[in-house]
């Protein structure tokens, strides 16, 4: 099978969390959130390498955690950039596999089953992302705070990570975006604009991105449930 690597991005400031410590380093059940995430990927037998992208001044601490938790697939720990896109680009330059998965370090509840469905869809279709159909009605709102439009909910999905691509496609997409000054909010945007079809794979609503304080409470519930399901 083609070789797969993963880039776990954990170099953000976590401003929406409002904590002194960036959220990816916060303890969840006595273990840093990003370590929970790395452990999920490190358990995948078919994954060839993991590149961790972390914050300025955090490389040594992360390297100690990697040793402590025996994350033997981590091949490099590097610092990211001021934008998530820059962190991803730095990370994929360290990957030597044919395919790469990009995953947020603050999405610790993704399962190996979801990751493998994302992998298989990428191998089949060329690129793939995990996502879930939105449950709320989504509105476009204008600058005056009034509804400007209501997209058809049937076509709306909340897209998550991992997002999987051919390494060559993603490198080219990031290079083009950097040259053209284009900044997207996910990697699929950069590949879409290159005309590469991206398949959406239905994941789980529990694959949350820990972003604001209320997410932490839900994360503690999910972690407890995860622990209980192992007993
Ligand atoms: N310059 C950045 C920004 C974000 N990320 C990572 O990308 C993931 C998703 O980003 P987000 O949830 O927005 O994290 P932050 O940017 O830290 O959050 P905020 O926008 O609240 O500051 C996180 O794992 C974050 O650490 C990153 O590696 N480099
Ligand atoms: C990549 C992502 O997680 C997909 O939903 C999301 O776009 C990241 O956005 P953020 O503002 O960088 O958290």
Automatic annotation (TrEMBL):
Family: Belongs to the IspD/TarI cytidylyltransferase family. IspD subfamily.
EC number: 2.7.7.60
Functional description taken from the UniProt entry: Catalyzes the formation of 4-diphosphocytidyl-2-C-methyl-D-erythritol from CTP and 2-C-methyl-D-erythritol 4-phosphate (MEP).
GO molecular function: 2-C-methyl-D-erythritol 4-phosphate cytidylyltransferase activity
Broad enzyme group: transferase
Keyword Cytoplasm attributed: no
UniProt pathway annotation: Isoprenoid biosynthesis; isopentenyl diphosphate biosynthesis via DXP pathway; isopentenyl diphosphate from 1-deoxy-D-xylulose 5-phosphate: step 2/6
Site (Transition state stabilizer): 16, 23
Reactions listed under catalytic activity: 2-C-methyl-D-erythritol 4-phosphate + CTP + H(+) = 4-CDP-2-C-methyl-D-erythritol + diphosphate
Identification of the protein by name: 2-C-methyl-D-erythritol 4-phosphate cytidylyltransferase
Origin organism lineage: Bacteria, Bacillati, Bacillota, Bacilli, Bacillales
Source species: Paenibacillus campinasensis
Keywords, alphabetical: Isoprene biosynthesis, Nucleotidyltransferase, Transferase
Chain positions of site Positions MEP for the nucleophilic attack: 153, 209
